[in-house]
Amino acid sequence: MAEASRQEQTAAESGTSAFARPETLPSAQPPPTPEPLQVGTPATSAGGVPAVVSAMKHAFSEMGPVRGTKTLLKVNQTHGFDCPGCAWPDPKHRTAFEFCENGAKAVAEEATTARVTPDFFRQWSLVDLAAQTDHWLGKQGRLTHPMVLREGATHYAPLSWDEAFTLIAEELRALGSPDEACFYTSGRTSNEAAFLYQLFVRQFGTNNLPDCSNMCHESSGTALNETVGIGKGTVTLEDFEKAEVIIVIGQNPGTNHPRMLTSLEAAKRQGCRIISINPLPEPGLQRFKHPQAVRGVLGSGTPLADLFLQVRINGDVALLQGLGKALLEREAKQPGTVVARGFVEERTLGFEAYAAHLGTVSWEDVVEQSGVSQEQIETVAEWMAGTERIIWCWAMGLTQHRNAVGNIQELVNLALLRGSVGKPGAGLCPVRGHSNVQGDRTMGIIEKPKPAFLDALSREFGFEPPRHHGLDTVATIQGMHAGRVKVFFAMGGNFLSATPDTERTAEALRRTRLTVHVSTKLNRAHLVTGQRALILPCLGRTESDAQASGPQFVSVENSMGVVHASRGALPPASEHLLSEPDIVARLAKAVLGERSRVQWTWLVEDYDRIRDLIAKVIPGFEDFNRRVRQPGGFSLPNGPREGRFTTQSGKAHFTVHTMPWLKLEPGQLLMMTLRTHDQYNTTVYGLDDRYRGIRNGRRVVMLNAEDMKELGVESGQVVDLTSHFEGQQRVAHKFVVVPYDIPRRCAATYFPEANVLVPLDSFAEKSRTPTSKSVVITLKPAVDQPALAASAP
Predict the structure, then answer these.
(1) Neighbours of 268 (CB within 10 A)
(2) Residue 355 in 3-state DSSP?
(3) Model-level pTM?
């Protein structure tokens, strides 16, 4: 049967063309960069002088030398502010320069002196703004005033805060049901704001609380809850100092979590073996030049990975089952030397079924589906067999596949087999992206809340929270598209660009009555709206927050469950900005009125009052206000880390998974999306990917040279990419072919440009995370080829 184009179907429903849009409909996709792409040799090391130069260049260009220096010296300091970038934890002994290159870029983006005022919006229509790149949009500066897009208007216009909250309240009160609204959350929201936000939403009457976790580590939380009893990692930063083997799989710390390289270097210098498992070789795991050490600035740096296993995209289950098979074969030859028998028998369930399943797995299938040789797999097994001090680190490379939960649970199987959980120098380490994405979930930002949490809300606040499950991110888009969701409210983030199936998501947003975004800077999500739209500008992490009782601070939770304070110091970018807690409180008062007995205004006058409520509702936050003021904050309880598995059985669970079998038709490739080094999530700092040798462009597709020959395409050729899923096609136009060291029949592209290819209805089993790293594509030459072809630098 002929495949139908998703864009054509959506366009037909809306009466528009997917790519030749009328002037009144802003494009949902960023335009290509007009200048020629430059492709050079990928780097073989990360950090060093280039990282310092890049960090200072961004900081000084956005903030100026004096303001930039003063601001950076407060990043991740005990009495400073938490970096708005990744969630890697801070060391106990901090230097004066406790930030990385990409952290400096994130701070510079927020603390820029550029401003987007009402005059800007009078000059620029939505259609004109949509014709600009995402990089250009972000570089315009900080939003300064609340803005409204009225029905039928082409430009945003200013309005007062009271008018904004009245407009939202009218729309929410007019809904037939509270479930006709969805309230999205980005991972940068503080604990205090997140707690108030979920409390307001549940008093309003819904659990529709999708968040960015749905698109990243939801698979990790699901897998870990089922197997060890907590949806978080089980290690501390100090465990990296004691580990003897660290396995980094499906993660690129050099770009996504650069400060992690410091921990890996310290482990390496103490004799730890490091194994990198990824489809692409990443410079950060090859060699690290510590920017704050003489050896990093003047020397050649520290080699990190002892072994690189170049796994095929989504070949991870095959590889991990191969490791398990190799370990069990060693155990069979030398009983009692490999399997941690005491640990397995006393503290786990399901080992026999797991071992029996691996007995049916053939080495031929392992090698075929993983793309990794048996010899390399057995080398890793030998290293693992020699120690229990093993740490497993992973990120999106494992979590964004249909079998993502299985990927992570196979990894857990190996940790349990060696008894490598709940011991010094050992454990499970999902590396989170946003600085407080884990904290938001702890505060109750979840569409499927546990009954005990809802019971605690009911006792403390005297209302009956909704008990039915709400909508996650995928279901929210589907609900908007079907007309069931009529109001969309986003606390931070760039929902349109972060989500899959860009054109369908855009059409879904356009079918709502109202879209609202709480933001610090302009992004593409502000341009594709409901019938009416609001932009509510808020304070950033870097800025001082003064309320009625005086200066305030907020708290965040890092990737390892440490809660600590964050205090901004810069003057606010505009006198018209509100803090996120204040925005939530004013919104709740406007919407709920006398329905709520919560003293919303009183709470935001002093954030200690919010923290007192958190301490009463959420376990682990007892005496919150005193403990968060301790230098470095405090660690939340973590049963598995402490040697207690908090599953219903009280034991950890081995699990059994069928090996995914990749079957591609002739001409098809399996594509994954990833970041450039000049990017943080959907925020584009620049147009270069320095570590991969790709400059001045983002619409690229990285291919194996042998595949290029087979497909008849050349380096620098401009092609259209088509994804295939269940009889549907999605097309992304004008991508430049770049030869790269990537396994056969695999392809890599950057998001958000390639998100249009990710099917909305393709998501991980159980976790429902979109399969952004398992997209089947074909390519063909573009009809017209603009001046985008690759050239030597």
Answers:
(1) 19
(2) helix
(3) 0.94
